[in-house]
Amino acid sequence: IEHTKKLVGALNSSIEVANSGIEEMNSKMEGLKNDWDERWEILWDTKEMVKEMSRQLKSADSQASYTPPQISPSQLTYPPNGKTTDNRGQVFKRMLNVSLEVACKPISREQPHKNLQSELAILKKVG
C-alpha cells in the first residue's frame, strides 16, 4: 500500500507539471495569436493603401495630378536583415508598418513641382 501511495503521489506530481506546461503553452499560443492578428491588421491596412494608390494611378487625370501618400517616418523601420547602410544611390530599403519592404527615395522640397510630377509619372510607368 505504501508503494501504491508513492506511485500515486508521483503520478499526481507529474500531472501537475504537465498541466502547468499546458497552461504555459496555451498562454504562449494566445500571445502568438494576438501577434498574428496585429500583423494581419497591418497587412490589411497596407493592402487598402496600395489599392487606393492603384485606383488613383488608373484614373484618367492621374498623370498630371498624382501625389504620393504621405508616410510618416515613424511608420518606417530598418529591415530585420541586411545592413543599415545598404543603399543603391539615393534609393534605400525600409519596412513600412513592420511588414512591407519598400524602396525609399528622399524628395527634395526645393525641387520644382513640375519636375516632381514628371518624375512621379516616370516612376509610375516603370513600377
Question: Features of this protein?
Answer:
127 residues, alpha+beta, 12% strand, 3 helices
Descriptive notes:
By secondary structure, the chain is of the alpha+beta class. It folds into 2 domains: 1-58; 65-127, no CATH class. Helix content is 59%, strand content 12%. The protein has 3 helices and 4 strands; from the N terminus they run H-H-E-E-E-E-H. It has helices at 2-58, 62-65, 113-126, and strands at residues 76-77, 87-88, 91-96, 100-104. Strands 1, 2, 3 and 4 form a 4-stranded antiparallel beta sheet that branches. A hairpin with a 3-residue loop joins strand 3 and strand 4 (100-104). The longest helix is centred in the N-terminal third of the chain and has 57 residues, at 2-58. The protein is elongated and about 95 Å long. The model has no long low-confidence stretch (mean pLDDT 78).
